[in-house]
Amino acid sequence: AAAIAAGDSPTLERSAHALKGLLGYFRAVPAQQAARELEELGSKGRAHDGAEPLARLRAEIENLRPHLVAYAMPH
Prior knowledge:
By secondary structure, this protein is mainly α. It is built from four helices and no strands.
């Protein structure tokens, strides 16, 4: 969010790329797609256009949260 607010496209691109990879590990496709969109915006120097994909990413991560908590709990 800070990279978007600051218009810091290189940081947005790097951060979104790393997050995209992590989300792929969990097969969180909708969240991964939002991260990919943020990465592309960063690569195009359009960080300020990231508010909508960031909102989708946050919503998808919230949907993923219960699964992550369950994964982290001992069985």
